[in-house]
């Protein structure tokens, strides 16, 4: 037990070392940051495999790169793919010509769609283009359809574009906006975070019941601490959003596992490990669902 306490102390110290930025509101159970842009597509048809965002971008732009090889390898496109060569009316692919852009195809979407993660967590897509189009692609990067252009410029400085939804049977996509909360913490954002945090803790506490882990108040206490630690860790900006969620969840699993070993000494380590894995997977899934549908965004 002494070794477990030492390891737990070390993990808490290492995890806390990243907390160098102001507290904000983004982690697996809070809204994604401004640089995290969702794409949703419906009625795409059987031949459409991917959806990409086209932005206004010149070759002289600081955000332009001739070839985003990392994203091309994810999609499996060659450099000669039509989507990479596309350049009409000043629109180019953000996935394949956006510098430091990370695209996650078909992520958190029921059909063709995905996530575009811009270079900085605090960089909304509206900071690099005033309008976008959606390109529907087949598995080889051929362009099957391009939507009409739609503005991504917010009505005021307090909001940013967080998601585009495109019904391929129509003409223009629809852009959704949500509130900025970086650098300040409005009451609505704080309340949204607390509600989402309570839901996440409730999920993990309920999952403890079939595992016969008691008392639940210890589960609640440990989760409250790790939720806040993860909350601040991702906002520290040391890693991009997706990487920070992955690394943060690994730390949280280790911290909670050790804390539960120390708190529930009569329960086997195998049962605690299984419970911790299942509970964290469930709460993470809930948080990502909230993000995808922009629920309790503050």
What does this structure look like?
- β9 and β10 (174-179) form a beta hairpin.
- 40% of the residues lie in helices and 18% in strands.
- It has helices at residues 2-16, 69-75, 82-85, 94-97, 187-208, 216-235, 241-263, 269-293; strands at 36-42, 50-56, 91-93, 102-105, 113-117, 131-137, 143-146, 150-151, 159-167, 174-179.
- The chain folds into 2 domains: 2-28 and 183-293, no CATH class; 36-179, no CATH class.
- The strands form 2 sheets. Strands 4-5-1-9-10 form a 5-stranded mixed β-sheet. Strands 2, 3, 6, 7 and 8 form a 5-stranded antiparallel β-sheet that branches.
- It contains 8 helices and 10 strands.
- It has 298 residues and is α+β, with helices and mostly antiparallel strands.
- α5 (187-208) crosses α6 and α6 packs antiparallel against α7 (241-263).
Keywords:
single chain, 298 residues, alpha+beta, 2 domains, 5-stranded mixed β-sheet, 8 helices, 40% helix
Q: What structural class do helix, strand and pairing data support?
A: alpha+beta
Number of strands: 10
Which stretches are low in confidence, meaning pLDDT under 50 for 5 or more residues running?
A: 18-28
Global geometry: elongated
What fraction of residues sit in β-strands? 15-25%
The first-to-last residue Cα distance is 42 Å
Q: How would a textbook summarize the main sheet?
A: 5 strands, mixed
Output mean pLDDT: 83
Cross-sheet strand order for the largest sheet: 4-5-1-9-10
Order of helices and strands: HEEHHEHEEEEEEEHHHH
Count of helices? 8
Helix content: 40-55%
- How many discrete structural domains? 2
What does the oligomeric state look like here? single chain
């Amino acid at each position: 037990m002494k070794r477990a306490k030492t390891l737990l102390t070390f993990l808490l110290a290492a995890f806390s070392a990243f907390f160098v930025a102001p507290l904000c509101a983004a982690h697996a159970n809070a809204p994604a940051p401004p640089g995290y842009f969702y794409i949703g597509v419906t009625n795409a048809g059987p031949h459409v495999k991917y959806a990409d965002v086209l932005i206004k971008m010149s070759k002289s732009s600081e955000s332009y790169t001739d070839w985003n090889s990392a994203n091309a390898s994810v999609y499996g496109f060659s450099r000669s793919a039509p989507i990479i060569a596309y350049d009409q009316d000043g629109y180019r692919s953000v996935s394949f010509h956006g510098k430091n852009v990370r695209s996650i195809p078909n992520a958190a979407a029921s059909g063709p769609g995905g996530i575009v993660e811009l270079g900085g967590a605090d960089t909304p897509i509206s900071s690099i283009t005033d309008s976008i189009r959606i390109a529907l692609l087949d598995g080889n990067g051929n362009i099957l359809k391009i939507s009409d252009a739609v503005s991504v410029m917010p009505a005021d400085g307090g909001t940013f574009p967080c998601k585009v939804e495109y019904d391929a049977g129509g003409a223009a996509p629809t852009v959704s906006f949500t509130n900025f909360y970086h650098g300040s913490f409005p009451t609505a954002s704080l309340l949204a975070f607390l509600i989402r945090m309570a839901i996440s803790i409730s999920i993990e506490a309920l999952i403890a019941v079939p595992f016969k882990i008691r008392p639940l108040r210890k589960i609640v206490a440990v989760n409250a601490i790790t939720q806040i630690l993860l909350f601040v860790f991702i906002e520290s900006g040391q890693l991009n959003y997706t990487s920070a969620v992955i690394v943060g969840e690994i730390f949280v699993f280790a911290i909670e596992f050790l804390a539960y070993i120390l708190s529930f000494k009569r329960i086997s380590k195998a049962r605690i490990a299984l419970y911790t894995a299942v509970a964290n997977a469930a709460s993470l899934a809930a948080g990502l669902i909230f993000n995808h549908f922009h629920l309790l965004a503050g």
